[in-house]
Amino acid sequence: MTTARRSDATRSAILEAARERFAADGYERATIRAIARDAGIDPSMVMRYYGNKEGLFTAATAVELDLPELGALPARHVGASLVTHFLDRWERDDVLTGLLRVGVTNEAGAERMQAIFAGQIGPLAAGVCPDPADAPRRAGLVASQILGMALARYVLRLGPLVEMSREDVVAWLGPTVQRYLTAEAP
Asked: Which residues, 6+ apart, have CB-to-CB distance to 174 below 8 Å?
């Protein structure tokens, strides 16, 4: 195995261990030593690749939301499409769920989640809302619904929300997200 391949494998092992450890222990309690132990490497390797715990956290929580192209959809389907997309993401992406867990208990996690949602939902909102200047507020409202549902359904596991079918979640949440994105401002 070449040095580059070993380096890539080591980085991948560190990131996987870090994601699991941050999700399980939170930012404050996760340690470089525990992450290194989980990855089967010396702690100095974590520091070599990521500098410090904050650098490792940023790398481990890099999330591309892969948002759907909403401009191509009829306006009346934007909310349902976005809710469906996020249900898919939450159900298959442990990184996003782990980041949400950390984000509700830690300032660095909250800032990371804020940056992801502002940087990725903001431009999406600007592309579909009636007044692009209002996009940041609309993006925040959309995030409140998406993150609220994710917290209740996938982290807190509130029974009635866990038991809801995906279709019911989309039917309930889609119109609210739709209104936030496309309705005239009150």
From this structure: 79, 80, 82, 83, 84
Question: Where is the domain boundary, 60, 79, 104?
Answer: 60
Range 55-78 burial, b when 16+ CB lie within 10 A, else e: ebbbbbbebebebeebeeeeeeeb
> Can you give the pTM of this predicted structure?
0.76
- In this predicted model, what pLDDT tens digit does every residue of 36-66 receive, in sequence order? 999 999 999 999 999 999 899 888 887 777 7
65 in any annotated domain: no
Count the domains in the chain: 2
Q: Give 150: exposed, middle or buried? Use CB within 10 Å, 0-12, 13-18, 19+.
A: buried
Domain limits for position 13: 3-60
